[in-house]
Amino acid sequence: MTTDLDAINADGSDAPDSADAATRDAGTSVTPTPEEFAGYDDLPSVAKAGSDGPRLPRFDGDVSALPDRACWALQNLLTRRHISGEQQPQLWSWVSQYRDELRVRLSELDLRLRVVDELEVAFVEQAGYESRWGRRILKRETIHTYDAILALHLAKYLRAARNEHVLITREDIHEMFAGVTNTIDRDLAQFDKRIDHAIDKMVELAFLRGHRDDPDTFTVSPVISAVMTASVISDLQREFEQFIGSGEEGAQPPDGVDAERYEDDADSEDADSDSDDAEDEEDEW
C-alpha cells in the first residue's frame, strides 16, 4: 500500500531523492534478468563436498537407508580384519562419521563394532549368546600356540614403546623364543620352522608389516594394541608361562581372546609333514 508519505524524503521535503534523480537524468534503467538465468531456483540442488545430500540408487532395486559412504564402510568392516586410519584413512573417516548407524546395522547381525580412537583402528567381533536360531557371521581362523606367543611378545614390545613405531627383525623374533624349551621342540630345525610360520601369520593378520627393502625387517602395527587389550595380554602371559614349564603340546586360549572371527581349518600349513603332527594344538583366536 502506497501513501503520500512514501514520497517524502528523509529531510521532510517531497522532492525526489537525489540518487533517483541522477539515475533518471542519465537516462539509465535497471537491466532485466536475461532469460538464460531464469528458472535456476527450480534446478535440483547439488550436495556440498563432505555432505551426503540426496542419494541416488547405486544399483537397480537399491532401497538402502544409509548414505553410500556408510554402506561402503559397513561392507569393508565385514570383509576386512580391521580398518586402520594409517592404512585406510578414507574408510576410517567414514567409520568414524557413521559409527552410530553402523553399530545398529551390525547389531542386527549379532556383531559388535569396536572403535579405538586413540589408535584409529576399528574392527568387528561376534557377540556371543545362546540361541538355536542365531548364526555366526564372522568366520574363524586357526592360530597355533606359537602364533599366540609371538602376538603376546609383539604387543608387550609395542606397549613398552608407548605406541611409537617399533622395528623388529626376524632374528629378534627367533631370540624371543629362546626360553621355549619343551619336549616337542627338541628338533631345532623344526622349531625354527614353526617360528617362521608364526611370523607369516602375524604378517597375514597385519600385526607385522614387512619392509619392501628388507624382507626380514618388520614394523609392529598399532592394530595389535587395539585387538590385544591389557587383560588379554595378562591371560596370554599366564598361558605362556604354563606352556614353557609344562612341556605340553599347547594350552587352550584364554577366555579374553577373541576367537569369533576365525574358522577352524583342518589343512594347516604343517599338515604335509608327519613330524608336524606334534604341532601344538590349534587355538582359535
From TrEMBL:
Residues 1-54, 243-285 are annotated as: Disordered. Residues 10-26 have a biased composition (Low complexity). Residues 261-285 have a biased composition (Acidic residues). Pfam families: DUF4194. This is DUF4194 domain-containing protein. The lineage of its organism: Bacteria, Bacillati, Actinomycetota, Actinomycetes, Mycobacteriales.
